[in-house]
């Protein structure tokens, strides 16, 4: 390594043969020059002055803080792309699990700021600390949101896996079977989850890949899901996107600006569950992989589609009149006293007024995962919803919808999971710290 | 339908109960108001003034013409997202096949300009002419590129399927088996293909879905592939992206600006194959689904990775020195006369100078399709390359690489296809017209 030529006033510790990942990328080619120069007898030095093309191909430079009272990625304005992964913990050691959560938190704090996953020093003769495919891409609004499944607390036999069973939130139970569920067990449940949202899918995929890599030997991916387009707005500044039924989705969603509603419906309060006080400031995440029979839907008349949804397609306005953001009038009737918004329409069955005021913060994504053997697209909605109490905010509504919602003829739920999403980590701390201390 | 209220000076043909798809979306709510008013006794009219939120959630407004000498989506600056589909033709009727190509061409001409798939009139009591999920999204640089597989010309028994066997290009043969291929037949081959590229994945998915819908009864999807990030630049104005090995990919790719090289290496010439003169101005598309063993790769030292690639990771400069766009010096040696760029490195084996000057226009995409049962991401590179002569530009190089390239230890080819991509359609004509007339 005698031919190294530090540049830009940076010190390269040649005898240790190590240089920081961040510095290596920050320097104009030095990291590479060090390696090549070893072979090249000085030839590599020319590369040290290589200039990077300026503009990144995609993405945005916005960043969200990782260390915060609540985890980012919940009320954060929904980013356009998703990579979600559920993990099985493979270790039986509580210490290794805690070490994983610490390492994940550190890596998340780096990556969400647009930096490589691991900032520690690395040797040029070791695997790189970061896998590299997001080098040069901006942070792209990346958020990483972590959750714990019921199986993290107790195994299938009810055994306490990591000495935390007495702290399992009473709301954190495997979701019940809903009528017409057709769940694939390998696409359901999980001990841990990570929701990666970003404006650039390469940034989201990079994050899940590096977290999976960090978990090697401690946890492994059980299932994962890419989402190519958001189907909900979580901020009033966002336009309402469309789902694969072609309709605007999530018009009546909770929005970050309605802080009182968010406090009521999303964040777990200090008195909600005294045995699980570590969840204060956290939330519960329902995930449902909802396949859409889009070929069947596409053969249905526009009138029928609108009656099933209860809104018009062009603007998303309720069929009782008004604009997209008008409140639906469920008592309005038309000819022959028929309700303008059908009794079995989706908007009626999902609306807070017909669910004892229950509301959710939805954060779902459209997905397409290839096609089936009959040439039909394997596509639909990956439903994500954050609620304070699944037992009152999600389960009764879904039970009712799966029985009464006409839309159920066009969808099939193929994956399901519930996770407890702890509050945010403090600077220097880690996600879930209050559960383990 | 007596309560319709035409707005904005538009005429609504009430007695026919039909209104154009485009007008329906263009009018501020009229289409929906028509439907709702039927039930609502006038209540729906209020919606006719609903204003759309201004900003679309994503995408760009750039458009590329559909009718052109060459098909768009080849030398077009590579868009960020991909949805690719291969189709099996299910009809035995030549006429139906031609009708499909005509309908596809019309729909492509609409969608690439940011309009719904079908502009013809539709009834509110019929299925909508467009599936709707791209309503309100800009064109996002959508290109749709169509190709014909060898199986369109002759079936497995060699039988002429549609009276075009005598016009099958001699270059259009099923790709040979390459050493270490592990092809999944249901992810390989196909009678027809459509490559949808756009800046917004929802726009690309919408296009494939609507083309598949139009094909119902004539052709069905055989396999499909989403790509979330481009791995090649096809224009000098673009920065070089990174593949999932973390390296810049396609630095030495053909670029649209090198029109002479493009003419030499991409476009089929009038004298190339007199029996298949209909291909003049077209090209051949090689598709390969290349799974990357990213977990294994990630455990390899950075030095080893760079030696396998033959370039440095931070900047993509050849290991012989210089910057990203410096020509690799394959004769340069370092200590002990070892070549700076290893003999079995990817850059050496793929380079035109070691392939009798053969070059390709690459247009590949990173993909992640969930994970396998061992928790490893099902991820890699969906390789797309346009060449004038597969027999000299792709097959010998791939044969050599699959034997000698050290990178082959980290990848597995799991899908393969070759398509003849005809020239562009003339205004009023359709893709492949010269093949059928």
TrEMBL record, chains A, B:
Q: Which reaction does it catalyse?
A: heme b + 2 H(+) = protoporphyrin IX + Fe(2+)
Q: Which UniProt keywords apply?
A: Heme, Iron, Lyase, Metal-binding, Oxidoreductase, Peroxidase, Signal
The entry's free-text remark on the cofactor is: Binds 1 heme b (iron(II)-protoporphyrin IX) group non-covalently per subunit.
Residues covered by the Dyp-type peroxidase C-terminal domain: 240-425
PROSITE patterns in UniProt = DYP_PEROXIDASE (PS51404), TAT (PS51318)
- The main location class comes to other
* Cofactor needs: heme b
Dyp-type peroxidase N-terminal domain: from which residue to which, for each copy?
A: 71-228
GO terms in the biological process aspect are: iron import into cell
GO cellular component terms, semicolon-separated: cell envelope; cytosol
Q: Does the keyword Heme apply?
A: yes
Q: What class of enzyme is it?
A: oxidoreductase
Q: Which GO terms describe its molecular function?
A: ferrochelatase activity; heme binding; metal ion binding; peroxidase activity
Q: Name one Pfam family in it.
A: Dyp_perox_N
Q: Which InterPro entries match?
A: Dimeric_a/b-barrel, Dyp_perox_C, Dyp_perox_N, Dyp_peroxidase, EfeB/EfeN, TAT_signal
- For region Disordered, the annotated ranges are 1-20, 112-132
Q: Which family does it belong to?
A: Belongs to the DyP-type peroxidase family.
Q: What is this protein called?
A: Deferrochelatase
List the source organism: Luteipulveratus mongoliensis
